[in-house]
């Protein structure tokens, strides 16, 4: 069968096949994955999909981070799958441990209570270190300091459509700083005092609150209460320099001081989302409708058959979470005066 169609912005080679790699400039960007050695085969699946759908044409680097030393098998398998340079880093102890001000007895008691209440990861210490690390430290790891942009990839995700352009470049060209594909409501039990802690922060640092922010995405009553909407952070394409800014670091330190990562079970998703929603201009947050994605248990499958055909998508349209009751995407569309796609009403149940 003759190869048909060439990658956008490229011309076929003399052999008639589309070039294996898209010509042109690259952004200062990397993939970043936090994983354990035992996650090797789950992350292998993710890398294979990211490479097939996008990165084999762009060859961006891939940074792997771990609180432990990566073993040879992990490095061998992931380096073989990735088309760009791979780098492996160990997380410094201070970025993966209890800060001194944490009362250990109080933290242990919370974990016992959450275990009784069967709150997901409620009894886990390592999950809390993970959430705190993803909230405040991954972008400061020495291996990450070389990069301005990152794309976070977790084990066992799927990409369902071809991505024929460079999302990093799209972000830069369109002055975006943060992006998402899925948004939903957080479990209230994991963040009971997060919003009040954020309000203390914005009262102390009003200069960090963007004038044209996304408060309407986060709150239904002008900021009095949090509606628990957040962007799901297992997928993120974002600007690491924004996270390295004094504004974000002051925000993270304020949250960290309050102890909520350990006295509750704050996730990095609501932490990033509230920061983006309040401290970025709403035009700086992008919804990647064209990146079809799965992380258990939710799917983003772009609405519109023509798009799915043109991009060789293999997701099941009925699985699309966008317009379901538990999704927050409608709020994002309404906040930004975006037109919902043809046929979205049929996907609401
Ligand atoms: P979930 O998506 O909230 O269910 O959480 P995951 O189990 O997927 O963890 C989120 C990310 O952190 C994934 O990339 C995991 O591989 C990684 N992760 C979770 N716990 C640990 C840990 O203890 N050590 C390391 N190195 N990575 C972890
Ligand atoms: Mn996950």
Describe the structure.
The chain is an alpha/beta fold and 349 residues long. It has 13 helices and twelve strands. The protein has a five-stranded mixed sheet. The structure holds guanosine-5'-diphosphate and manganese (II) ion (MN). The site of manganese (II) ion has 3 residues, from loops.
**Total strand count, please?**
12
Return the string of H and E elements: EHEHEHHEEHEEHHEEHHHHEEEHH
CA distance, first residue to last residue: 41 Å
Bound molecules: guanosine-5'-diphosphate, manganese (II) ion
Active site: 236 (nucleophile)
GO cellular component, one term: Golgi apparatus
GO molecular function: alpha-1,2-mannosyltransferase activity
Organism: Microthyrium microscopicum
Summary keywords:
three-stranded antiparallel β-sheet; five-stranded mixed β-sheet; globular; binds guanosine-5'-diphosphate; 349 residues; 13 helices; 34% helix; alpha/beta; 13% strand; disordered N terminus; binds manganese (II) ion
């Amino acid at each position: 069968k003759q190869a048909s169609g060439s990658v956008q912005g490229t011309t076929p080679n003399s052999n008639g096949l589309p070039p294996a790699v898209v010509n042109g400039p690259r952004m200062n960007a990397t993939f970043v994955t936090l994983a354990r050695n035992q996650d090797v085969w789950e992350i292998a699946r993710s890398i294979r999909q990211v490479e097939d759908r996008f990165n084999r044409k762009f060859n961006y680097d891939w940074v792997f981070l771990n609180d432990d030393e990566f073993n040879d098998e992990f490095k061998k398998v992931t380096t073989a799958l990735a088309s760009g340079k791979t780098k492996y880093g160990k997380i410094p102890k201070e970025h993966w441990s209890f800060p001194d001000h944490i009362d250990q007895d109080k933290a242990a008691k919370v974990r016992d209570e959450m275990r009784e209440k069967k709150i997901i990861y409620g009894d886990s210490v390592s999950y809390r270190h993970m959430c705190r690390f993803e909230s405040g430290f991954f972008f400061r790891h020495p291996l990450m300091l070389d990069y301005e942009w990152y794309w976070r990839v977790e084990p066992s995700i799927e990409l369902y459509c071809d991505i024929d352009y460079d999302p990093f470049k799209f972000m830069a060209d369109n002055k975006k700083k943060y992006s998402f594909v899925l948004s939903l409501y957080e479990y209230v039990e994991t963040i009971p005092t997060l919003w009040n802690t954020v309000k203390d922060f914005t009262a102390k640092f009003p200069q960090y609150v963007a004038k044209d922010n996304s408060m309407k995405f986060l709150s239904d009553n002008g900021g009095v209460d949090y509606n628990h909407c957040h962007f799901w952070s297992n997928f993120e394409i974002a600007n690491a320099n924004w996270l390295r800014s004094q504004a974000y670091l002051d925000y993270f330190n304020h949250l960290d001081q309050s102890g909520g990562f350990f006295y509750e079970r704050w996730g990095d998703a609501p932490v990033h989302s509230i920061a983006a929603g309040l401290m970025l201009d709403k035009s700086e947050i992008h919804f990647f409708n064209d990146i079809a994605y799965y992380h258990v248990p939710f799917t983003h499958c772009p609405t519109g058959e023509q798009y799915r055909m043109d991009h060789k998508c293999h997701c099941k349209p009925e699985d699309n979470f966008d317009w379901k009751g538990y999704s927050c995407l409608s709020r994002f569309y309404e906040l930004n005066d975006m037109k919902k796609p043809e046929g979205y009403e049929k996907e609401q149940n």
